[in-house]
Write a structure and sequence with these properties.
By secondary structure, the chain is an alpha/beta fold. It is 47% helix and 11% strand. It is built from 14 helices and eight strands. The strands form two sheets. It has a six-stranded mixed β-sheet with strand order 3-2-1-4-5-6, with helices on both faces. Helix 2 packs parallel to helix 5, helix 8 packs across helix 9 and helix 13 packs antiparallel against helix 14. It is elongated, with a radius of gyration of 21 Å.
């Protein structure tokens, strides 16, 4: 049977859980809302997609190469709320008890780690599902790699769905982003080139090099001049938006078969977090079948 690996964009899921559930705390005041929501989202993903293996990937910092290219890369992002930050240790404790892989590589963004593990898994013949809302990761989609929503249980994007959503195919996503920029990452694009214009250009000329090889074929003078004036910007952006697939990851994804986890460790964790509804089936195993 073909292995099916679920890769989870850990920080993105934790953020969504934190803002989706408010004011959940233990009796002594410790916030647990992000932890609770994170566990429920993982459970929903497991029910929906039935993966054989699972790994959660967390950001490990900003790569020196991208910072050298663009010192303002992601500089606009607000600091993580302290009440969310202090919950990551508990999320890690849960993943260990649940026997779910957790990767964090110092100095590497989660996207590049996800891209690397995806390449390793597909080379081994596995199918991959990536749980994220990050459009950068759409460039990884193929016939055996799909992006699924952490919150919309039935949403799954293959190559055709990516084309419908963005106007370009997955192998053009990095170039599409290089042209339009990415406000989420503080990357400026070519003035006057929005998602539809970029998709039209890439559809007509196939690639960024193709666009620049045929600038004189672009009839709109302002668009042609803007593209010419921002050639270096687009070239730089290509280096920022293209995901790396050569990160040294801490373990082999095949080590992370998704079992039922360590029941004793999970029960202790749920009790500590005061997640009584999660603890109850482990205290009364017959409830697991209900």
């Amino acid at each position: 049977m073909t292995a099916k690996l679920l890769l989870v964009d850990g920080h993105a899921v934790a953020y969504r859980a934190f803002y989706a559930i408010r004011n959940l705390r233990t009796r002594d005041g410790r916030p647990t809302n992000a932890v609770y929501g994170f566990i429920n989202m993982l459970a929903q993903l497991r029910r929906q997609w039935q993966p054989s293996h699972a790994v959660v990937v967390f950001d490990g910092g900003l790569p020196a190469e991208r910072m050298a290219l663009c010192p303002d890369y992601k500089a606009q992002r607000e600091a993580m709320p302290e009440e969310l930050r202090i919950q990551f240790d508990s999320i890690s404790d849960y993943l260990q008890a649940a026997r779910v892989g957790a990767y964090r590589v110092d100095g590497e963004e989660a996207d590049d780690v996800l891209a690397t593990v995806t390449a390793q898994a597909t080379e081994s013949g596995a199918a991959v599902l990536i749980a994220t809302h990050d459009k950068d990761l759409l460039q990884l989609v193929t016939d055996v790699v799909q992006v699924v929503s952490p919150t919309k249980s039935e949403e799954r994007l293959g190559p055709q769905e990516v084309k419908q959503k963005t106007g370009v195919y997955p192998d053009q996503i990095a170039e599409w982003l290089a042209l339009i920029g990415d406000t989420a990452d503080n990357i400026s694009g070519v003035p006057g080139v929005g998602p539809k214009t970029a998709a039209r250009l890439l559809g007509q000329f196939q690639s960024v090099p193709g666009i620049y090889a045929h600038l004189n074929d672009i009839s709109q003078e302002k668009l042609r001049l803007n593209l010419a004036a921002h050639r270096d910007l687009v070239r730089r952006n290509m280096q920022l938006t293209q995901l790396r697939r050569d990160v040294r990851v801490p373990a082999d994804w095949q080590d992370w078969t998704w079992t039922e986890g360590d029941a004793g460790a999970l029960l202790r964790f749920y009790r500590e977090m005061e997640f009584h509804s999660m603890a109850r089936p482990l205290e009364n195993p017959t409830l697991l079948d209900l």
